[in-house]
Fold each of these.
Amino acid sequence: MAAKPALPGRQRRRLRASRLTQYALVQVLIAIACVFVLHQSLPQPPAGYLVNAFNTKEGGTERGVTLPHYTSSRFSMNDPPLYSGQFVWSSSEAQRAWSVYLPRFNNGVEVAVNGVVILDSRRDPAANRPDRNAPEIAVIPASLLHEGENNLAVRLFVWGPLTGFLDSIYAGPDPVLRPYYEQRTLVFVTLPVVFSAWQAILAVILTIMWAVRRHEPAYGLLAAAMTLGVAQAFLPTAADQSQYSRLNAILITSAPLESGFVLTFAMLFLGGRWPRYGALIFAPGLLLVAVGLFGDQALISEFFLFVGVPTIGLYLVLLALIVARSVLKRHDVASFVLGCAVTIVLSCWIRDMLSVLQIAPDGRIFVARLSYSALLVAIGAGLTWRFARALNQVDGFAARLVTQVRQAEDKLKASFAREEERARAAALALERTRLMRDLHDGLGGQLVSIVALSERGEAGAPIGEAARAALKDLRLVIDSMDDIGGDLMLALGSWRERATAQLRPHDIALDWRAVSPQGLPVYPELRPWHVIQIVRLLDEALTNAVKHARARRIMVTIETLTDASGVYGCISVEDDGNGFALTGDGAAAALGQKAARGLRNMRSRAARCGAVLDLVSTAGGTRVRLTLPRRFPDSDAAGA
């Protein structure tokens, strides 16, 4: 495929500016949608049950206030503000239970009706977190209510880091108020728990991924961030000093450290590099941890408010910039989805800061932690998308690999077929060459002798003997071409018949002995030319015994021997004739030149088959011992 032509610099800058504008417009639309959704308030109970006129006693002064109300102090545990008001109850409502419903407060409340405490949120640590937005409802015992006005007192406990806040209070029938309480509980309590559980699962998955892929630290960083997030979500804020209150405070205020982990993960996950001074990202979080170890609860709250919260905002802005750069550079779905989630979280964080500064009259409902779930979903979607893309790449690679393997297999099959054909042709040519050589050495010489005798005019026995020798050699060649399956005993059986016929006119007895039950071992690699060499060697030994030894009995012994290297066969031809002396090179000293040449041929044939020929001759006879190899050679070049 031809490469795409590079765009000119000006056109490339225009394209980049166009993409940046489109991405920015999408994020602005998301921010506007967030503002619109957050501006919508949750349904409120009927106004007839609203109690918002109270007298408050705070710091030694008493004055009238209208709820919702912000206190003047962020720490008022020893002298908590006291709100006193009244609500009207009629005896006609006696058939229905009445409750006091508090939509929002921080940090803790104690509610009393007609001087009797019916609710203390400090007994429910999950309700004491400012970012939980947890509502409370308490049923008023019927014995406490009386006709007309009833006193309602609310004591607000504030332990920072924000100033105390008390939202409007409702006193009315429990069946009327409880649906609103359950609705708020679903949004601000149940959903965060569900998302925290998803965050815990994501932490486990990321930890496993990091353990398997240690060379990708991004997964380990995100796993650490998710673990801190789970700890922050489930740990309660202790209203007083306890054994684990300091540890809880450190973990709850570790949001800057969690943000640093998320920022670093996004940087590495989206293809960035670790900056030179990247460790400074974790400095604010570590500072808060140090303050938590050595400071008191008030100091921890102050540092979190003035150091931790701005750090989170700064990291959100940096995260938005990193993701925007990745969207423009990579153009992938994961970066775009993550950028939209960061915009949602940043919009909610800005709204929470306006609430902290009391600029946005929103009843101090904090949604940044709740919106953090959008970032979790985006991260999960990005990881899933990248995993699915990796699977698609693996599948595509596997498909290409299968195609290439099939093509290579077809080529190998074709090459193997060609090589097999060449090998078959070469083997056939080699066998033809060997056959021609054997015919030339044996039958050719006999035919030449017949021609020479006939030309000299000789007739009778010489020509007949030469013709019979030629016929014998021809039968030998033909028999050796039979497929005997590596069983040399079949070839020796045919040779035995010819040897018996050869010895009969000379009145020589053939004693055939198979010492081993199986005779000789089977040689799968045995070839016809091996058989020819062995049979001719035995013919030569038999001929020497008939012509030169004047033997009356010839004994052929066949056996299978075993040693440490394996099994091998052995063939011995022994006669009882006249022996002869041997020279140092194994030649016959007392025989003629033709016989000596025959002995040399026997040794040469044995060597070409990889066998060993031993010749022992005494006054009582001669023994020719042929020790076969454990494996016959593939080429007769071994004897060269």
Note: The domain at 485-639 is CATH 3.30.565.10 (Heat Shock Protein 90).
Amino acid sequence: MIFKMAVNNVKKSFKDYTIYFLTLTFSVCIFYSFNSIHAQSAVLEVGNSSISYMQTLTNLISIASVFISVILTGLIVYANNFIIKRRTKELGIYMTLGMGKRKMSKIFIYETLIIGGLSLGVGLVLGIIASQVLSVMTANLFALNMTRFKFVLSIDAIIKTIVYFGIAFVIVMGLNQVIISKYKLIDMLNASKKNEDTKVKNPVISVSLFLVSVVLIGLSYNLVLDVGLSTREPLFLLSVVLGILGTGLCFYSLAGFLILMIQKTKKVYLKNLNIFTLRQVNNKINTNFMSISIICLMLFVTIVSLFTMFSYKANLDESIKGNTSFDASAVLYTSQTNEEGDSIEEALDQLDFSFNDSEEYLFFNEYALDLQVADIVSPYIDASNVHELENRADDRNIKVFTLTDYNAAMQLKDEQTVTLRDNELLVATNYGDKIESINRFMENEDAISINNQPYTIKNDDLIMDNIENQPHNTDFFYLVVPDDLSEELTLSGTRVNVDFGDDNREESEAKFAALFDCFNTIGGEFTQEVGFIQGFTREQATAILYGNSAVIIFLGLYVGIVVLISSAAVLGVQQLSEANTSLNRYTTLKKIGVTEKMINRTIFIQTLIAFMFPFVLAVIHSIIGIIVTSDAFATRNKNVIGSSSLMISIVIALIYGGYFYVTYVGYKNIVKNS
């Protein structure tokens, strides 16, 4: 009997459960998708160098899932409370007919199990589909090929999802019993008669506070644009505080400000149900200004983090192009060798390391000038980029390579060689797309002085190519000079670049990777014997570069989507809860002859405003945030940011727009069925 009532209640009230069902389904889908990442490494061609990053990513996602599950449980509880409040009058009728609270609790337990089971099933199906997309994304982030791609199904992730959400449903059922046990009959029957509490009644005060909020937000923008993402700067902290205060004050005063502005335009204010709509919006914003402010800030953080992470990844794709030019590359610095004059060739001989017949290799020297990047471009450095340049230069002297060695490296890569006169040199860097001072230097200077001898810069445009594999720091700056000049320069290291050839590539990769891994710890057996060699295969360099970014992007995407769902769900539940408290007003409108079409229109406008106000301000905040983070992560290339904009916008539109539509339909049905 009780179970049958629960089934009938779910059938007839499924529209009321829509937002609850949507929240549960989204949560299950996201939770399964990200926790199934460990299964993807088995079907993708993940190299040995990338496996450790996949394991790290899996472990971090498992840890993050604990915190995510707490957030999602709170969200489920919040949405469930709406269901109870929505049906308090129904429960009151049950109680007047003699039904005990224990039986009512059982009804809710069965309803929770039914809705939970449905959402868990649908969410897992969607999650399994989404995880296939995540597999493609994983391959892209780790620069892997998809030749072994196949359908992924993670039993471990399914079990973990069922366990986590099973615990959440148990908590919900327990809280339902507590809530129902505390309800009184009079509260249940009169639950829909509560009114909102208006915070600011004087429109003049509202306008004044709104203008103050605009000033605070403007000051926050100005400060953060000046100091950038320097979290240790007191001004950065001040900009954050001003931004939070300005956002809260904006929503606190927004309703009164809107009323005053629209009242001045009588044609708009008196048209259709605009007076009623405006008062409804006024009450909603006044009542929930604190939660709306928090949602706005959550949306801001989500949007900025999503854009920044994908922009960083796209920027990494651009900057890595010249940094993994060889199948293997290594250096032995002279300051770290045991005896003066040791070279990397002699060190490899000491280790009895030999090259295969299919492997082409080049030994060459690296020299250093008594100059840093900042020294030669100092006339063109301004306050806006001096810190950025200093951080990248890192007090290192400019590297120099001879023309013969440079051309030999180009031939190893099957690229065109160059020629130089005795008084010419070439400038190569990938600083140029980030540091304006270097671009200005190239535009205004035609020579660089070395040992008091001027050398003409032959190339008009910066050469964007590296002469080594380098995963840790993708910024480099070096000069190519005539061979004779090497006699006047200081030897700083000896290098080797290798091309594995088409035969035995896997064998060569394993051999060089094992060699370089032996030198990971300075002071080890190999280091004591021959000195410290720093080297990377292309696979190792790519794994380090993409592995770190993949971990950051996946975690940010995971948390970002959950925060986005939480924000949209809270807004939706708020609107549907307030629909119950406004039923008497809509009943009155019907009695005086207002059509259903006009009522639906005012519901649409109210819901749209409720969703758009925090979103629009979050987008405005995000524009400044993206500018600041782009500068910090050197993503000034607009194409880099644009490449990820469409995908991110689609994800946000689907989730946030989906909640808006479901909320609007739910609100409309509540009023219609009243």
Note: Residues 439 and 596 are 64 Å apart (CA to CA).
Amino acid sequence: MCLSVRHPSSRASSAAGWKRSFPLTVVLVLVAAAATGATHLLRDLDLAPGLVAEITDDASLVLRVEDTGRPLITARPEVTGARRGGRTSTAPFVAKAADGDPGGQRGFAARADDDGDGRVDEDRLDGRDNDGDGQVDEDHAAIGDAMTVVSRSDGVHAEFYHFTPRQLRPTVFVTLAADGPGRTAWQLEAEGDAWVEMEIGDRRHRPSGRPAELTVHTYVTRTSGNSTNREHWVGVSILDDPAGDGVGRAVLDGVVLRVHLGRRPLAVAVSAAPSWSGLVRRLAEARLVRDGVSDPVDGRRAPWIVVPGCAACRREQPPDFRWRFDDKGHLVLLAKIEPGRSGRLDPDLFRLLDHDLGAPDQVVWTPREGATVGVAWSRVTPEAIARRGAAPRSPCLSLEGLSSHDAEGVLSFRFRSPHPALVRRLVDDEPPSELTLALLDGRVAQVKLEFDVSSTDPVRSAFALARNRSGQELLPADQQRLLQAERSRPSLAPALLEGWPNPFRDRISLRFRIPATVGEAFVWEDPDDRPARLDPQAPVPWTRSEPMATVKIYGIDGQELATLHAETVPSGEVTVHWNGTDSFGRKVASGTYFCKLQLDDWTITRRIVFVR
């Protein structure tokens, strides 16, 4: 049942004190239920799509995959060494609150000192009169958007905090204390790999835009995914050390992590993510929330404040993407990084045409100015971390200059041996494919993935690989892409531009033809450079439906003298004339000149001779 009541363990107080007691909904667990060891769900929290956290009235926390019911970790207080004559029948005190509730103001709020004694948060929410003023729970800190409190009869006190901003939603904060007889530990049992202890590092922007380096002591585990579920990483960070005895209060025993508790509250963050890079970012954000902010005027510090991210980071959008194959048939995704387009991407969470690409084996940053930098990357596992003795940093954070808001360049991700079905769909897909990606700040975005027509890498063998794997002929659209991406680019056929008479005295007629097919349009200096099985009847891949055609006259020194034609033209023939004058109407000297025809990106040049 749900009542607003005073806990039986509270001392008697005045009627006025009773009226001022904190008006929270307190869930009382029946004595009979406590005696049988039954637990009740107090609150479930949505951490991420398909992932929930469950808090029960014995101060247990379970992170669970929603559709399968599979737990990722189970955490509960364990008391040993206490001399008790049997199981206690005293019901625990449990309550719910939220930041800003009456009686629970905190931080820099005007009502943070609810009882007006000059101190804040000295009467915690546990159903007791901690500050001895005759009133109960009137001056505590209500932390987060969903705060849940469990105060057990054996002296264990646990407070669970949850914040709803995107970067904090996958994290549950817990403060724990124990003042009863015996030794108390918070025991976290993993359902996957053994726990690994490490220091993780992260780089982010402060609200001012200045970069900040963060280091967090962490224990991590991972549950492997299957055909229907992604893997999950879980991290536990001890955010403060009130006893001053360092991180030795935590003990690892395979899949069991025990965090020893004392009288002073210990703050812990428990976070989950579908990738290693995402977990690192979430635990770094947890560190910032625990530290809170300081008043720049009087220096007062308020913990448990959500620090807003850099404004420029919040406005940034995902970059535009292109794709290609390299000469070994490996898939390469290229992100165009520019101001307003973020390069802080999670390298493990690319999903293309319903296929998880997995971890790339290499990430390369090619800035607009400066040297190209590459980082080797692979799928991160707890075993690999343990062997290395250090935690890897996401390449999108370690590449110099990439985190700047002014960064410009190309960020490429190479994936070895893509799945044949994915290759076939990439080659055949019209319109462009859709790529799902994750930014390190937790956002998920979908972008169109265009073929990299400007690539200078040899892609001919990759398309042959795609054709062989699919068992299909290349479609006309594929042949157009192949022609545009060819390293040894063709030239326009010489027959497309003719001039007569040549030499000429008064006027030369220049006739050019707009070809309709690839066979009409192009020739290769070396016939062996022509792509295999290129269809001569395929349409010419103009930028638009009709090409931009320009005809210009140049001197032997390369100086442009006159423009005779510049407009889009459909297939067919066009004739223009030149009377031996420049763009200002002045007669040029006798000699050799060049007429250049350009159709989109392709050109052909003819030599002409003017005789006066």
Note: Residues 2-8+23-99+143-311 form a domain with the Beta-galactosidase; Chain A, domain 5 fold (CATH 2.70.98).
Amino acid sequence: MKLHRLIFGFVFAALGLAQAAEAPFEKDIRPILENYCFNCHGEKKAKGDVNLSTFPDLTSVQRDPKLWLKVMSQLREGAMPPSGKPQPTVDERDRVAHWIEQTFDNLDEGQLARDPGRKAIHRLNRLEYNNTIRDLLGVETRAADKFPGDAGGGGGFDNNADTLFIPPILMEKYLVAADEILAQVNFQKAFVHAGIFTDAHSAARKNLETIVPRAFRRPATSEDIEPLLALFGRSQKAGAGFDESLKLALKAVLISPNFLFRIETERAGKDPYPLNDYELATRLSYFLWSSMPDEALFKLAREQRLRQTNVFEGQVRRMLRDAKARTLADNFTVQWLGVRRLEGSVQPDQKLFPSYTASLRAAMQKEPVEFFHSLLREDQSLLNLLDSKYTFANEELGKHYGLTNVVGTKMRRVSLNDANRGGVLGMAGVLTLTSYPQRTSPVLRGRWVLDEIFGTPPPPPPPLVESLPPDDKPRDGLSLRQRLEKHRSKAECATCHQRMDPLGFGLENFDAIGRWRTKIGNEPVDSSGVLTTGEQFQGPAELKKIMLEKKSLFIRNLSERMLAYALGRGLEFCDRPTLKNITKELAKNDYRSSTLILEIAKSYPFQYRRDSQTEGKP
């Protein structure tokens, strides 16, 4: 938060905006807060440790953007004030939310964008390591699968530099992996041998001068090459052959920090600076391919042409068409939607759901990946993620969905005639991971929609909350829905459940493994709901129509997730101008997937960096 305060203090002082905007806050905004918020969030009572009475003017508001942006989202969703409390009029609600948005969004973008954000040194994660070895040496071994797992960091992704630590055991794994990899390299085919040169030393130099720049993803210096040649020479003097000696030098390359980390040059000073062409090529390739740059990118970097606008955009489009772009769809989608958890913690009851097999689970995981890859490959609208007339399925998953025209084990594009099924909310993998082993969970599903689709997660439940039964059988004359409605009638539960539950109820026609159903036991499914904003719906198809009307929230959230993935770090307040520009360009370009990728790749935080010891300069 210190960075935010520095930015705000500088920007508003420089632009002279604080004094100009104080009067509207004191006259138009604070009175509304006093009327509707201070009873629960004021001096006498500060629920959730939030005391809005401590913000007397605009300057104080500017110092806590995180809190006020949360206030804005709660107002817009109708979650604040909670039901049963005096409610502001629609005009008052909109006035406060709009004021907050304008306060933090309509700053001079050139000023705030001057900080590209902090970027820690970036270790290759397991996927990046495997892919880089494949593209560097042509070896398909997945040695990194034996490394300790990568923790998910900011944005929930396992490529977050802040969480890619190096435990001691990993150093041992690197040594073992290097031996395993080099044992599989065909040195007769992949490397130049001494017979072509007058001596083995010259041949070794030629090989190292070829491989090291690619391994380190930058031009090699004499300081890089000479120690490796010395290692090669000592091995030869000890009686080892050419291949064995070269392997020893290459092992040193594979355990070098210059290979294991994506190192970017730091320049002393507080001013941000552009990445050089090699660093930009590396960021781009690990964003789109989770691997090292290819020769086309290296060539442009050598020629210092990659930063040219038309050249850079052309490379982004080329890379999206490449088969390696499937890695982006795979790695981003399974982590964003959470379907990776189907392999571990999500285990439907086999007695109740015997059709849930390992092969069906695999197809469930592949469906959103194939779908997202098609959006990238065909440059389709990202709104298809909310609703679409097609999906991807194989024969087993097709039968699961009641489709009779899908044959074989291969995932293929299939048309959907049922308006309830299209989009991620109708995908069995999502519906399964948001259920319990024996029954569906409107709460889990509603929370998932708020978090993963809209980016507005509710707070965690209070302690000692009474749990609902593990199955959906009626108890004490009450259905599961009726028990849940009784549960959310409690004051301490009402606010969050009024947001979550209607979204989950709208998906109740899908059972705990995503099959369509019209009854629960002997009773018809009630998939109706009323959102906190007043919209009523019946079933998934109508719910999705309402969600499409709120597409700006979804697009903002998706842009945030993809930007965090691309940068390999959690987002900061200084990224807001970038997000605003991305969403604006998406709206102008029919929400095409290429626009999302291009605008991120062209963005200031993607193409610039600052010294890691500084907090940045507005």
Note: Residues 343-549 form one domain.
